[in-house]
Amino acid sequence: MRLGIFGGSFDPVHLGHLLLAECCREQRRLDEVWFMPAALPPHKLKATLAADSARVEMLRLAIGGDTSYSISTLEIDRGGVSYTVDTLASLRRQRPDDRLFLLLGADSLADLPTWREPGRICELATPIVVARAGAMAPDFGMLAPFISPERLVEIQGHQVEMPAVDLRASEIRRRVGAGLSIRFRTPRAVEMYIATGGLYRVAGAR
Q1: CA distance 129 to 138
Q2: How far apart are CA 31 and CA 124, in angstroms?
Q3: Alpha-carbon distance 168 to 14, whole Å?
Q4: Residue 128, H or E segment
Q5: Along the 206 residues of the chain, how does pLDDT read in single tens digits?
Q6: Is the pTM above the cut of 0.90?
Q7: How far apart are CA 151 and CA 202, in angstroms?
Q8: Cα distances (angstroms) measured from residue 116 to each of 106, 109, 137, 147
């Protein structure tokens, strides 16, 4: 199986996440994409996330039963800080015959050298880097110190294109807190879940 792993906070999942996953699935011919919500992202140690159960449920609603997509709670079940290298190593042990791909936006690629064991990450899974239309081309050169020239060329060959979609989970949370609409920014079912559950509402807001 060609299995794509898409990690993140997904707090909340939005249409940009879904489009990125679909572009990777289609262009790189992935059999499945697994959304992997983090227990505690290393770059957000001071952040307060929505409950694990809420983030998982929003992903379930967003996927809507599409069998090309699944949700893995591996990082949530493991608890603690969610390091990608640990997750990929665990998946490699569980699924030795599958080929793993790691879905990354260009901004995540820029941060990858600061992640734990970036070279091993690139050994355990092939990064699929997504370039958004109109944005600067991803800089793959930053991976050169960690991998062989041959592996670098291979990773460059897995770049994916997607339309320009300027959506951020932080902006969706801000809009909810300000009482503004988030329609067409996240799936309708997720929008209704957020409203019904009172997620991201500012204390005292009506």
Answers
A1: 8
A2: 18
A3: 8
A4: strand 126-132
A5: 999 999 999 999 999 999 999 999 999 999 999 999 999 998 887 788 999 999 999 999 999 999 999 999 999 999 999 999 999 999 999 999 999 999 999 889 999 999 999 999 999 999 999 998 878 889 999 999 999 999 999 999 999 999 999 899 999 999 999 999 999 999 999 999 999 999 998 744 44
A6: yes
A7: 47
A8: 18, 13, 24, 14
Question: Cis before residue 127, ω within 30 degrees of 0?
Answer: no
Helices (H), 102-156: 106-111, 118-124, 149-156
Element (H or E) spanning 57, and its range?
helix 52-63
Q: Give the Cα separation of 142 and 119 in Å (integer).
A: 11
112: DSSP letter: G
Q: What angle is formed at CA 59 by the lines to CA 56 and CA 131, rounded to 5 degrees?
A: 125
